[in-house]
Amino acid sequence: MSGVPNAPARQDQAVPLLAVVGIEKSFPGVRALSNISFEVAPGEVHALLGENGAGKSTLIKIISGVYQADEGSIFVDGRPVRYERPDDARRAGIATIYQELLLFPDLTVAENIFMGHAPRRGAGRLDWKAMTAKTEALLASLEIGDLAPGAIVGTLSVGNRQRVEILRALSQDARLLIMDEPTAALTEYDVTRLFDIVRRLKSRGVGIIYISHRMEEIFRLADRVTVLRDGLQVGSRRVAEISSAELVQMMVGRTIESLFPKVAAAVGAPVLEVHDLVRRPMTKGVSLTVRAGEIVGLAGLIGSGRSELAQTIFGITPAESGEILLAGEAAEIRSPGRARALGVAYVPEDRGTQGLVRAMNIRENFSLACLAKVARVGFIDRAAETRLAKAGISRFGVRASSLDQVVGRLSGGNQQKIVLGKWLANQPRLLILDEPTRGIDVGAKAEIHRLMSELAGQGLAILMISSELPEVLGMSDRVLVMREGRLVAEFSREQATPEAVGAAMMDSHGADTGRAA
């Protein structure tokens, strides 16, 4: 049966599983990679780090046969190879699992795993029995007990769909897996399960190139790390011999004293007051206050009701009962348009589908939330729209070739800056940020955090939702904790320790160290 290689990990062997030597790649007007060399040993997790635009995607596309290098060599098991297409790389045992999973939602788990190489019997007919048996064996090999060969992929969680992608690679005898931001859309439970699978593959000699913006994952999983910056190789180090601060400096080319540049701001009168807000099933009698100049962090596990609360305040899912006050006045918010008119801005969790129109250009996206400011008798004033976009690009440091660049082709950090700029063009008094730095690199995170501090210093009230506890603790003046649709604890900045907030999130002993909200 095709499956996981069982050779023991031998990271000290002379011949690596993969070696790239002196890789060069250019596109019209852009030097994407220059003299890149690194290697992966059997049973090694080799992390590939760098800011968006550093060249990581170009490099893995060369390794996986999507692009061909202009110069340099690739060796597999010590033998030189040149891939003209992705199928060549797959036949050599190299598989890439992209952040955007490439599955057929209407087909079963088994059909997705064996798409293109299904077992056959007689006259070319599919051998469904063999396909099911091989799928069950693959599932057993990774101790995945909650997936059935006949399950329809479109009904699965993101975590289970990702496991199907991994199994599809292993069904083709993959010996090198490239994982591109594999945890970006996973719950904490699914992240833990993914790590277990990575460790199991590693123990069986599979080499893994692991790309992630999450520093804690690198230190939990990786053996070595290679850092790219502006298409150049900054260096390769053993993870055990480097600190998080050193990695950050290698990635961004400058010292970041803190990823969370929180500056104390004068806190003013309440901007948002919520009393006994109810929107079933996830918002159950919530009360909170956010003041001018204050950043209030909203922590909680996935499914605790944080995003649902934000959407109710913003009018996407209007409240069934309770009261919302803005600057002391009762506000009935039944739609996002009404929220916007009242000075509320909302940066959603999924910027790609909810925050931007990715097929439109930068200029058009900047004006989406304030068309009234750039419209004249029903027509868009292009000159006014251009002035607005230029001001936004300058203020937020968006890196782009022109205002006409399609937003979907920008890095995640630059896309997030445009979403922020779009809403701040309305000059809101309350800004709701849902996962403001998800999926962006460490340098862009620091820029977003600096901007948050700057906005709070100008008197803006900010309600920030984040699944990253260091971000909540580092940027918040107060921390509120949600669990099962209710606010269960409140901590001042001084009280908000990882242990105290984590205990409140998990309903563990000691969770009431803060004042119950």
TrEMBL record:
Protein name in the entry: Sugar ABC transporter ATP-binding protein
Occurrences of domain ABC transporter (ranges): 18-255, 272-509
UniProt GO cellular component terms: plasma membrane
Membership in a protein family: Belongs to the ABC transporter superfamily.
SMART domains given in the database record: AAA
Molecular function terms, GO-annotated: ATP binding; ATP hydrolysis activity
Classification via InterPro entries: AAA+_ATPase, ABC_carbohydrate_import_ATPase, ABC_transporter-like_ATP-bd, ABC_transporter-like_CS, P-loop_NTPase
Pfam families listed in its UniProt record: ABC_tran
Compartments, as annotated in UniProt: Cell membrane
Signal peptide: none
Keywords of the record: ATP-binding, Cell membrane, Membrane, Nucleotide-binding, Repeat, Sugar transport, Translocase, Transport
UniProt xrefs under PANTHER family: CARBOHYDRATE TRANSPORT ATP-BINDING PROTEIN MG119-RELATED (PTHR43790), GALACTOFURANOSE TRANSPORTER ATP-BINDING PROTEIN YTFR (PTHR43790:SF9)
Role, per record: Involved in beta-(1-->2)glucan export. Transmembrane domains (TMD) form a pore in the inner membrane and the ATP-binding domain (NBD) is responsible for energy generation.
Membrane topology label: Peripheral membrane protein
